[in-house]
Amino acid sequence: MKTIITAKDGAGVFSAYMAIPAKTPAAAIIVIQEIFGVNADMRAKCDSLAAQGYIAIAPDLFWRQEPGVDITDKSEAEWKKAFALFNGFNIDKGVEDLEATLNTVRAIPECNGKVGAVGYCLGGKLAYLMASRTTIDASVSYYGVALDTLLGESGNIKKPLMLHMAELDKFVPSEARERVVNHFKNNTAVSTHVYAGQDHAFARINGEHYNEAAATLANKRTDDFFADFLK
Q1: CATH code of the domain covering residue 120
Q2: Domain count, the chain
Q3: Which of 64, 118, 147, 180 is 20 to 30 A away from residue 157, measured at CA?
Q4: What residue ranges in the chain does DSSP mark as E strands?
Q5: pLDDT, tens digit, for every residue of 121-131?
């Protein structure tokens, strides 16, 4: 189903795809998009989380540039559009829109008040920022980009955060990844997992670098993480 969220800065409203589980009230999970918008993959993730008993909501974070982006990684034209949207994306406004989503879903009668977030690629970066800038209860980042540039915000992270990182991520140099891992090695709120031999988006089903074994392991860790901190 589609729901509407009001932006915090008064710039307008934006849509979100939301899936409700059979039994409520329940915890909610914000599904944070890659650079392809709220596409079939993001909607399927929401539906899967609802089947596990969570409210799942995926907000349209590109709405300030172009509402309703729904593309794939299957053509050069779509990749060009995705990177153009990524390059034009305002990270701070994106976090504000996610915080508006958090406040909206936390207030609906179907939600028990607990809300987590899971993000992929661009969404992985935003999931980290949700942990450092908002009252989110638990966050998971899959192959978040440029996390090493955000370590100055790590002191604000008080709630659980899990980072899934690819050893051979073409968008994250090994030195940057190691800075992140080393920075959090003694932080009990943050767990890091590096997937040997894997490239960016190893958990994107049907993606170029999808790896079933690595994706299954990462997803199992995510499921257990949310079961521990949201249920």
Answers
A1: 3.40.50.1820
A2: 1
A3: 64
A4: 2-6, 13-19, 26-32, 55-59, 111-120, 138-142, 161-166, 190-195
A5: 999 999 999 99
Contacts (Cβ under 8 Å, ≥6 apart) of 144 = 119, 121, 123, 124, 125, 126, 127, 128, 163, 165
**Catalytic position from the list 97, 137, 169, 199:** 169
Rounded distance between C-alpha atoms, residue 47 and residue 53, angstroms: 10
200 catalytic, yes or no?
yes
**Please, how many CA atoms are within 13 Å of residue 203, restricted to the half-sphere of its CB?**
26
**Is residue 209 flagged as an active site residue?**
no
Q: Which range of residues forms the domain containing residue 6?
A: 2-230
Which two tokens mark 229?
Answer: 């901190």
From 183, 200, 224, 228, the catalytic residue: 200
Model confidence at 231: pLDDT above 90: no
Q: At what angle do helices 122-133 and 91-107 cross, to 10 degrees?
A: 70
What is the percentage of the chain residues whose pLDDT exceeds 90? 99
Contacts by residues 2-6 (CB-CB < 8 Å, ≥ 24 positions apart): 3/57, 3/104, 5/59, 5/97, 5/100, 5/101, 5/104, 6/100, 6/104
